Amino acid sequence: MTMDSDTGRLIRSEAYEPADEAPPAPARGRRPAAPDDETKVSPMMAQYIEIKAANPDSLLFYRMGDFYELFFEDAEIASRALGIVLTRRGKHGGADIPMCGVPVERSDDYLQRLIGLGHRVAVCEQTEDPAEAKKRGSKSVVRREVVRLVTPGTITEDRLLDPGRANVLLALARRRASDSAWTYGLAAVDISTGRFSLGEVEGPGLAAEIARLDPREIVMGEAIHQDPEIARLWRDTRAAVTPVGRGDVDPASAERAIKEQFGVQTLDGFGAFSRVEIAAAGAVLHYIARTQRGAKVTLSPPTRQAAGASLMIDAATRQNLELTRTLSGERAGSLLAAIDRTVGGAGARLLAERLAGPSTDLALIRRRHDAVAFLVSEGPLRAELRAELARAPDMARALTRIGLGRAGPRDLAALRDGLMAARGIATALASAGALPGEIGKAARILAGLDEGLADDLSAALADDLPLQRRDGGFVREGYRAELDESRTLQRDSRQVVAGLQSRYATETGCRTLRIKHNNLLGYFIEVPQAFGETLLKDPWRATFVHRQTMVDAMRFTSVELGELETKIANAAGRGLALELEVFESLSASVMAQSDAIVAAASALAALDVAASHAELAVELKWTRPVVDDGLAFRIEGGRHPVVEAALTKAGEAFIANACDLSGREAGQILLVTGPNMGGKSTFLRQNALIAVLAQMGAFVPAISAHLGLVDRLFSRVGAADDLARGHSTFMVEMVETAAILNQATRRSLVVLDEIGRGTATFDGLSIAWACLEHLHGTNGCRALFATHFHELTGLAQRLDRLSNATLKVTEWKGDVVFLHEVVPGAADRSYGLQVARLAGLPAPVIARAKALLAELEKGEGGSGRRKAPAELPLFAAMPAAPPPAPPPVETPDPVGRLLDGIDPDALSPREALDALYRLKAARAEG
Fold it and tell me: Is 93 one of the annotated binding-site residues?
């Protein structure tokens, strides 16, 4: 028996037996693939072994009747992964064959869990009718073949996809740029929507580009896969990794593959692509063809992502700023979760894409801001748009499934509803007057849709639709006369069956006689067993033919019932065939307008994002930023969007702060000091997040913001180790800091927190000092630099673009109060002891630390000001630890000793009286 892990239901092993095949016979040899062993296994198991050998790196879902079965090691892996019971079936090589299975009708649920764990699944279907197999002989096996490889980057089913996340399959190719450097080509495809983009990046930027794309699966040649220098990227992305052969990334075969995919003679119409980009495109197309097994995926023509078109944000910065996921990998608590007000899956994906890659195109940024500003000012229109958008399903993904032949009636309904929503939105925008660029473009696309397709789909599809087309019943009554006639025959036949049942019950005198149906027997007559014995005798045995005896009932048939069943079966089959014809016709009409539908889906997504930004701006009082090509960075009343949301939920207010890093020739550096828990990290992060929001096209959480375009964003906040690579916390800190200092330009924004704190004081202070000087003199970038090395504040007198800021704090009745307000100036202490007390350190530890601190400060002249490294004798005046307290002196207790020697239960009255006198005497003496 096999247990369904979701329902807890035990499924009898008999349910696995296919009607058309015998169970596998025990295998007598130990090498089933050997020719002399093939005769010793059942035909079905021989077929399984052959198909599995062709797909060794995938779990094989082997179709047997209503189940997908897994055998041998596949069964053991799936049993553990899915939590289903592992059974045994027959023998092979002298050992039992492990087996488990999942119902076909619920296979998507199990696939989702397997794909989520990183497995690949080969789906093997029956490709002929079992009746045809029986014609070839009793030992013939139904033909089967793998119709599809399901991998993390190639799934298309709604139930397997995250509606708000693009499902990117990324292919990599490379060419040597110099003796020590590589240039990488990237081809990113989302099969579920058909999006296809190419790009090229130098080696140092590969990690940042992969982090931006956030792929589910990465395909690459063996040489790249085995390169130890970039192997760490696969772990950092948490993507499935699939190496492919050299032929898949050959530029010549790659170009042919692209031409075949799009049916063109030349690629010139798509733009200019480098050879390494074409090689990557070929690799991804070869992989898609291999996994889809002949089903052609509809892809949009490839677009080229120009270098520098988006704000470069490396993987460490994304993680530190928690743009789309928190440090623990959760969406909740990230910036994306805080700003997402979209109402549809396509809009949510576009929002995430823009957040992952904010634009550096000034004109594009301004067009996006124009769209948001328009919808902020047009409240009723915004509400109407959002209501219509909420009714629009995910047309792009439904269209892909239709193109692949995997669609059901509900996918056609998704296009119907999406096109109807597009019509309503186009009407609303047409009456809104002059529209800004992005909204005007969307309005023109939606207005150009062919309304006839939406009307045809509405006329053809019923209101209540099945999941699968094979279930029938999805075509509306009155759409096709021939189908209505077939359905009428089916309904009339049911009435005839009911009439026949009534007549048989009257003629036999059995009131409980019933005519029933199942897939095994078809229609049959069922009576109680006691009455069934009567039907076996004259005069009824000439009319009723015995079929089956049950525990408490007997089943019969008759010539009349058999003829009626044939009529009903023909009517049902004809009706289903007609419905499938309608489905194919509608699908062809949809695919004929696929380009227009893809454009409309993109337009709806862009409107959803703009309306989301506008809703957020109105809800939280965010403002439009000014973005230009200068080096300004001036924010008034800035707030951290995620922290503010959390505080608001808790009923608390967020303290807003200003930040000015503006400069004419180079950016300013703000050195931030202040107490632990005072809010330095929040202040640093919020300014970085405001820059990201501004360049993605959103309004920002500030009273006002004027930002010069940022080309690269770097953030080094927090501490973590990388033990898998042998890197300590400090080593990781230095690696990330080195990347910043080597790559930051004058247009970059750098956020650094506590550089140098992971090593000895003099080492750390020296490193932080040198980093500040390098940022000032070499990089010339805008930077926020938080530190507890108060000695660094003196650099403001030497570095003309460095200024100091601190977080205000006050003390009240011995407690520290954090005001979270950033003001000009420098802090002279960090209030670490107060924070340690709040954290619960034992009181003796706090007292000892206070004494040590007092002595250290006394050694520095009593001012409490920390000195520069050259004049800081840290341990010269180290006070001795107080002597340990003496152990307590034991006090004699004569009464206690006497009591210890008395057993009250063993004393006679006289002995008890004597003991009392002794106790009294001992007390008098003590």
Answer: no
What is the arrangement of strands in the sheet containing 669-673, beginning at the earlier edge strand? 312-313, 712-716, 749-753, 782-786, 669-673, 802-812, 815-824
Residue 201: helix, strand or coil by DSSP? strand
Convert the pLDDT of each residue in 294-343 to its tens digit: 788 989 999 998 888 999 998 889 989 999 998 888 999 999 999 999 99
Count CB neighbours of 130 within 10 A.
15
- Cβ partners under 8 Å of residue 689, min gap 6: 321, 335, 640, 641, 642
How does residue 755 score in pLDDT terms, banded at 50, 70 and 90?
A: confident
The residue among 264, 33, 291 whose CA lies nearest residue 155 is 291
Torsion angle (degrees, nearest 10) of CA 766, 768, 771, 776: -110
Q: Measured between alpha carbons, how far is 22 from 32 in angstroms, rounded to an integer?
A: 18
675 is in an annotated binding site: yes
At residue 398, what is the residue type? Answer: A
Give which of 604, 522, 519, 600 is closest to 555, Cα–Cα: 522
Does 678 belong to an annotated binding site? yes
**Does residue 7 carry a pLDDT above 80?**
no
445: left (phi over 0), alpha (psi -120 to 50) or beta: alpha
Q: Are 282 and 255 in contact (CB under 8 A)?
A: yes
Using the predicted structure, report yes or no on whether residue 715 has a pLDDT greater than 50.
yes
**466 token code pair:** 């099945």
679 labeled part of a ligand binding site: yes
Is 681 labeled as ligand-binding? yes
Q: How many residues does the chain have?
A: 926
CA 477/CA 481 separation, integer angstroms: 9
Of 511, 501, 413, the residue nearest 464 (C-alpha): 413
- Please spell the DSSP secondary structure of 631-687, one letter per residue: --EEEEEE--HHHHHHHHHTT-----EEEE---SSS--EEEEE--TTSSHHHHHHHH
Q: Which helix (H) or strand (E) holds 90?
A: strand 87-92
Do the beta carbons of residue 783 and residue 752 sit within 8 Å? yes
Q: What are the structure tokens assigned to 785, written together?
A: 């630099």
Peptide bond into 539 cis (omega under 30): yes
Report CA dihedral (813, 816, 821, 823) to the nearest 10 degrees. Answer: 90
Cβ distance 468 to 424 under 8 Å? no
Is residue 715 a known part of a binding site?
Answer: no
d(CA 414, CA 736): 46
**Please, what is the average pLDDT of the chain?**
85
Secondary structure letter of residue 575 according to DSSP: H
pLDDT top residue among 437 and 399: 399
- Encode pLDDT of 560-610 as tens digits: 998 888 888 788 788 889 999 999 999 999 999 999 999 999 999 999 999
Residues 873 and 395: their CA atoms lie apart, in Å, by: 70
In the numeric block, the tokens 């990347």 are attached to 739
Residue that has been written with the tokens 């690459």 in this structure: 220
CA separation for the pair 6, 856 (Å, rounded):
64
Please calculate the CA angle 530-536-537 and round it to the nearest 5 degrees. Answer: 105
Which pLDDT does position 278 carry in this prediction? 93
* pLDDT for residue 35 is more than 50: no
